């Protein structure tokens, strides 16, 4: 912990749009205001969405500080800031924490209806343009100012920074998908897509007691990795329906989870879901795809289709607990893609680009 930072200067990698190099700039470290917590960042990982922004495939308001998968130590609490985390554990200066990728108000229409990720006053780390005094709003910096309404989770010592950082994005999103799907103990779960989300989902399905975990990807080269993460069966999309039926006496999967981002996979997920089953669609985050659904099929097979975007604070708690309890059963460490200093952020993004599926860390 570096309490000297309050009142001093700290570095942030300012992103000004696709094609512009990151600008490493020093800004005054802010004193946390009402409800805020100042954190000394120890590690941030580069997420696929950061890469999309860097490559210009996705627009963020600029200039901004990217990065939302963040671990750090508490430096100072503002007045009225939370002194307990989401699990009710006391928070002290020096505690190592991660936090929800968004802060929500808790009072608006959507917050009161269980959709804090759709809060009418939502603030997302790494997704907001910087302003004087509000520069430390993302992960690729030496510190971060947590705004009021952020859900904090204190990290167990056993969980390393590089393992813990993606908890607040990929792992929490997967935990949210299982919350929407309902209990899976003894069930057959089919997972479409074997990227970080799909691998994490296979491991979580296993740890939640799923009897069969069918993982599906266009790339047969993913087969070995996903088996290491708990899948009992791997298939390519063309075989998903027949393989799932073969493994379930012709019924289909109790739960299908779509993390591939392909419209064709969404159609495949619906088809492979058994009568009365649940299909959670979470992979598609850019518009433009379309899927044809026969309403008669929906009616007769009594399917439940659920869309999922981001997650709620309780899912971050589930994610951290999952990694702490079962992370060593699965090779999560193999997803790490090396660590770079903040000054080397350009190289870090290049490295993340050529090694998709690996989480590259920035350690300021
Ligand atoms: Zn992310
Ligand atoms: Zn709200």
Please describe what this structure looks like:
The protein is of the alpha/beta class and 364 residues long. It has two domains: 3-155 and 331-362, Medium-chain alcohol dehydrogenases, catalytic domain (Quinone Oxidoreductase, Chain A, domain 1, Alpha-Beta Complex), CATH 3.90.180.10; 172-307, Rossmann fold (3-Layer(aba) Sandwich). Helices cover 25% and strands 25% of the residues. The chain has ten helices and 16 strands. It has helices at 48-54, 161-164, 170-181, 196-207, 223-228, 240-247, 263-272, 295-301, 313-326, 345-354; strands at 9-14, 23-28, 37-45, 69-77, 96-103, 123-124, 143-146, 150-154, 188-192, 212-216, 233-235, 253-258, 273-281, 304-307, 336-340, 359-362. The strands form three sheets. Strands 3, 4, 5, 6, 7, 8, 15 and 16 form an eight-stranded mixed beta sheet that branches. Helix 3 crosses helix 9. The mean pLDDT is 95. The structure holds zinc ion (2 copies). One zinc ion binds at residues 104-105, 107-108, 110-111, 119-121.
Radius of gyration: 21 Å
Determine and state the CATH class of the largest domain. Answer: Alpha Beta
- Proportion of residues in helical segments: 10-25%
CATH architecture of the largest domain: Alpha-Beta Complex
Main sheet specs: 8 strands, mixed
Q: Name the overall outline.
A: globular
- SSE order in H/E notation? EEEHEEEEEHHEHEHEHEHEHEHEHE
The CATH topology of the largest domain, please? Quinone Oxidoreductase, Chain A, domain 1
* Class inferred from helices and paired strands: alpha/beta
By DSSP (H or I, 4+ residues per run), the number of helices equals 10
Number of strands: 16
Present as ligands are: zinc ion
């Amino acid at each position: 912990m570096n309490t000297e930072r309050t009142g001093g200067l700290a570095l942030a990698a300012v992103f000004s749009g696709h094609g512009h190099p990151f600008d490493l700039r020093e800004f005054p470290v802010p004193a946390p205001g009402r409800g805020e917590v100042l954190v000394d960042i120890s590690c941030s990982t580069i997420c696929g969405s950061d890469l999309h922004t860097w490559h210009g495939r996705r627009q963020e308001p600029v200039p901004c500080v990217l990065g939302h998968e963040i671990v750090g130590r508490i430096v100072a609490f503002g007045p009225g800031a939370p002194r307990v985390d989401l699990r009710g554990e006391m928070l002290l200066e020096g505690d190592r924490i991660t936090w929800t990728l968004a802060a929500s108000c808790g009072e608006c229409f959507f917050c009161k209806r269980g959709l804090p990720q759709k809060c009418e006053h939502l603030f997302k780390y790494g997704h907001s343009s910087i302003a004087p005094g509000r520069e430390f709003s993302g992960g690729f910096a030496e510190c971060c100012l947590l705004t009021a309404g952020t859900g904090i989770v204190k990290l167990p010592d056993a969980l390393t920074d590089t393992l813990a950082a993606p908890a607040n994005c990929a792992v929490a999103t997967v935990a949210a998908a299982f919350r929407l799907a309902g209990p899976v103990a003894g069930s057959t779960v089919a997972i479409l897509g074997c990227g970080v989300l799909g691998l994490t989902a296979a491991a979580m399905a296993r740890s939640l007691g799923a009897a069969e975990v069918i993982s599906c990807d266009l790339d047969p080269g993913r087969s070995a990795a996903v088996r290491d993460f708990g899948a009992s069966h791997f298939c390519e999309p063309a075989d998903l329906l027949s393989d799932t039926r073969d493994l379930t006496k012709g019924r289909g999967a109790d739960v299908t989870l779509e993390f591939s981002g392909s419209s064709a996979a969404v159609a495949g997920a619906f088809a492979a879901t058994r009568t009365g089953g649940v299909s959670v669609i979470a992979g598609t985050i850019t518009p433009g795809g379309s899927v044809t659904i026969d309403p008669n099929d929906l009616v007769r097979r009594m399917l439940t289709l659920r869309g999922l975007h981001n997650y709620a604070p309780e899912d971050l708690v589930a994610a951290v607990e999952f990694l702490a309890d079962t992370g060593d059963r699965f090779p999560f460490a193999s997803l790490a893609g090396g660590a770079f200093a903040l000054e080397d952020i350009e190289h870090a993004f290049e490295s993340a680009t050529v090694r998709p599926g690996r989480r590259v860390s920035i350690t300021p």
